[in-house]
């Protein structure tokens, strides 16, 4: 049942919307600094096609974006929230008004739609209304500060394992494993199945190996590759490293270990190699995304010193058929 709390529903380009949004953002940033000082909220902007929803001390920009990226639905409804105070009634009213707009989208029940709200992971006061409306923690942006070294034993490969930088000759194997990783993530229901994943990933990997030379490592057993880790240095991670005040910050793109060798220490060795090189380069932190519902990724990355920074709460499709 929609909340009785009133909501101002304004066009993104309406007069005075920018000032109201800026005031809420500034107060939100102050509040969030006490919740998690590592989170750096970017000032939101409302385009002419967006909606600005305001209720009390809560405001949000509602947007719809089309995308051909592999990891997200082709049509994504997003809500960027700024809460000067954790007013659950006001937040619920804003959320319900947005969801009414989402439900009016004729494509909302299509599997290639999603509705997403990204929150600071420690901003727990805003979570319950999302869960009550069937949102799940689709992905976590996790962070690890690099001001301390990994234990020496983490950096020592197991007997018979060789760790080396990847080269262009590794592209076919890396591509196969990257396709496997995409298919694996799609099993959790938040990442769409993409038949064209191989073609898209081939271009991305080839470019990254050339551009970010020395930032992908491969582990070999008896001369055969069995695991890898890929990292974007800060200059290639500008799309995400503004999410934290720590700088410079890199991004761990993906990591893979052959299924029969998981829990053997290979993943730990590769991640530690990336951390050591990043620390030598003077980076302050490393970011990565992992599934919010994976029983493998969550405990592993926590054991490597990562902790949640932002959580993307999602419904996919954006609206359940018959809802």
Automatic annotation (TrEMBL):
CDD domains associated with the record: NAT_SF
Keyword check for Transferase: yes
This protein's UniProt keywords: Transferase
InterPro entries with a match to the protein in the record: Acyl_CoA_acyltransferase, GNAT_dom
Pfam family, one: Acetyltransf_1
GO molecular function: acyltransferase activity, transferring groups other than amino-acyl groups
Name of protein: GNAT family N-acetyltransferase
Species for this entry: Nocardioides zeae
């Amino acid at each position: 049942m929609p909340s009785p709390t009133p909501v101002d529903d304004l066009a993104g380009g309406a007069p005075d919307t920018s000032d109201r949004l800026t005031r809420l953002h500034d107060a939100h940033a102050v509040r969030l600094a006490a919740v998690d000082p590592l989170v750096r909220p970017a000032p939101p902007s409302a385009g002419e096609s967006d909606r600005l929803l305001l209720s009390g001390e809560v405001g949000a920009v509602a947007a719809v974006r089309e995308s051909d990226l592999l990891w997200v639905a082709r049509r994504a409804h997003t809500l960027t929230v700024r809460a000067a105070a954790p007013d659950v009634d006001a937040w619920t009213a804003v959320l319900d008004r947005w969801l009414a707009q989402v439900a009016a989208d004729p494509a909302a029940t299509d599997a290639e739609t999603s509705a997403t709200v990204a929150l600071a992971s420690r901003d727990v006061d805003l979570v319950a209304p999302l869960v009550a409306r069937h949102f799940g923690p689709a992905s976590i942006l996790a962070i690890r500060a690099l001001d301390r070294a990994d234990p020496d034993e983490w950096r020592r490969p197991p007997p018979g394992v060789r760790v080396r930088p990847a080269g262009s000759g590794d592209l076919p194997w890396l591509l196969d494993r990257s396709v496997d990783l995409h298919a694996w993530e799609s099993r959790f229901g938040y990442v769409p199945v993409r038949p064209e994943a191989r073609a898209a990933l081939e271009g991305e990997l080839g470019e990254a190996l050339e551009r970010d030379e020395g930032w992908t490592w491969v582990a070999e057993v008896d001369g055969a590759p069995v695991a890898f880790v890929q990292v974007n240095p800060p200059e290639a991670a500008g799309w995400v490293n503004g999410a934290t005040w720590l700088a410079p910050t890199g991004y761990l793109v993906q990591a893979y270990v052959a299924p029969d060798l998981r829990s053997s220490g290979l993943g730990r060795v590769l991640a530690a190699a990336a951390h050591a090189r990043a620390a030598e380069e003077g980076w302050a932190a490393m970011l990565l995304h992992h599934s919010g519902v994976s029983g493998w990724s969550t405990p592993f990355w926590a054991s490597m010193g990562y902790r949640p920074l932002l959580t993307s709460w999602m419904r996919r499709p954006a609206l359940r058929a018959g809802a």
